[in-house]
Design brief:
Elements lengths: L5 E7 L6 H10 L12 E10 L7 E10 L7 H8 L7 E7 L3 H15 L27 E6 L6 H17 L3 E4 L13 H18 L8
Parallel strand pairs: 1-3, 1-4, 4-5, 5-6
Antiparallel strand pairs: 2-3
Pfam family, one: Roc
Family: Belongs to the small GTPase superfamily. Rab family.
Function: Required for KRAS signaling regulation and modulation of cell proliferation. Regulator of KRAS prenylation, and probably prenylation of other small GTPases. Required for lymphocyte development and function. Not required for myeloid cell development.
């Protein structure tokens, strides 16, 4: 059997937002019973059928690189993480829907990964919002995933999801909100599963079909 082509997708976000639980759910289709802190980086693999159900269907490996989420701004911490940012094909930005700071920190994470040699200085503009122009020319596909949806009271859910929708818009990315302890949020045929498949298809297209500006 011929070896499958593969793409590298970073999974970034603060410590404690549920990145390891998410990766386990995506790759094993199981709930991670006893998640622990990720030190450095952990890699798992998901098999994905590109353009499933069409004549162009082809199977790929999706490597999901779960990068430890220490937010420390120390140069040594960032330079250690920079090793994992090489040759990336896509980024999943993960935040905790119950923790607004983890959502705001996604801007720092994305800029750190996309501009490895540039410190995220001047990310904030004068009115307190983030400058989406910084992401306008980004060619790396992004997906925003909010976790712990089950922990938001019904009365506050609309307010929180409205706020995070603007977050995804800033990144020009689709958004998935879920509970990593419940596989039904990614059940086959669900809107979340469709968004996830579409994201992986886009990552594969950028890596294998859009070289030198050639369209698929």
């Amino acid at each position: 059997m011929a070896a499958l082509d593969r793409v590298k997708v970073l999974v970034l976000g603060d410590s404690g937002v549920g990145k390891s639980s998410l990766v386990h759910l995506l790759c094993q289709n199981q709930v991670l019973g006893n998640p622990s802190w990720t030190v450095g980086c952990s890699v798992d693999v998901r098999i994905h059928d590109y353009k499933e159900g069409t004549p162009e269907e082809k199977t790929y490996y999706i490597e999901l690189w779960d990068v430890g989420g220490s937010v420390g701004s120390a140069t040594s911490v960032k330079s250690t993480r920079a090793v994992f940012y090489n040759l990336l094909n896509g980024i999943i930005l993960v935040h905790d829907l119950t923790n607004k700071k983890s959502s705001q920190n996604l801007y720092r994470w994305s800029l750190e990964a996309l501009n490895r040699d540039v410190a995220p200085i001047g990310v904030l503009v004068t009115n307190g919002d983030y400058d989406r122009e910084q992401f306008a020319d980004n060619q790396i596909p992004l997906l925003v995933i909010g976790t712990k949806l089950d922990q938001i009271p019904e009365a506050k859910r609309n307010e929180v999801l409205t706020r995070t929708a603007f977050l995804a818009e800033d990144f020009n990315a689709e958004e998935i909100n879920l509970d990593c302890t419940n596989p039904r949020y990614l059940a086959a045929g669900s809107s979340n599963a469709v968004k996830l498949s579409r994201f992986f298809d886009k990552v594969i297209e950028k890596r294998y079909f859009l070289r030198d500006g050639n369209q698929v």
